[in-house]
Amino acid sequence: MNxxxxxxxxxxxxxxxxNQGISENRLMTAADLxxxxxxxxxxxxxxxxxxxxxxxxxxxxxxxxGVVTPDGLVARREVNxxxxxxxxxxxxxxxxxxxxxxxxxPDDPDFIRPDLDSGDxxxxxxxxxxxxxxxxxxxxxxxxxx
Length: 146
Known about the structure:
- The protein is of the alpha/beta class.
- The protein is built from seven helices and six strands.
- The protein has helices spanning 3-6, 22-25, 30-46, 70-89, 99-103, 126-131, 140-144; strands at 15-19, 50-54, 95-97, 104-105, 108-112, 136-138.
- The chain is globular, with a radius of gyration of 16 Å.
């Protein structure tokens, strides 16, 4: 998808939810991810759209070779902190869909809660998918835009 072309052409859209997958996360730095989120939000704002960001969910228990890297886990934590704070309060996003907090293990937040894990350490089971639907954090700017 060419975001620069497609954003303005989404006439019926009122907003976007941005969710970065974990597969790409292991290949990027926190600065790369933050810059990408910011650029994408700029395109949305330029088209009059609101944008909500989802935090990157936990995946340290992934059973798939090469998915978990120390640098990738650090980048996930840093990007999630940025989304929750600077990303929202600087006006980049109008809200946060905090997947990481909704499904992360409180004792070890890089891992999915055992009762929400499908068994592969990466994907959620049905209960996990349901848990992921409730953690919205809105800023005032969401309610002020039409």
